[in-house]
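Raw record, unedited: Protein yippee-like
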Amino acid sequence: MISRAFNGQHGRAYLFDGVVNVVEGEPNDRQMTTGNHTVRDIYCVKCGQTLGWKYDYAYEPSQKYKEGKYILERNLLVDVQ
């Protein structure tokens, strides 16, 4: 995990270099609080639930560090035992 200091549409979110057991949706542009980004939603490979998104491109130079990284929204994750 890179950072816990993110917010998603459903509350707290975490930034990761990589994630597993997800499939990626189609890219689309979104206006976010930190500027315009090209992102793709990521879904659980087993149940299809939306878990967050992947940053493909950041239009703002200060946000380039997010490119290729993933956001997982805490409230969309389920603890599995």
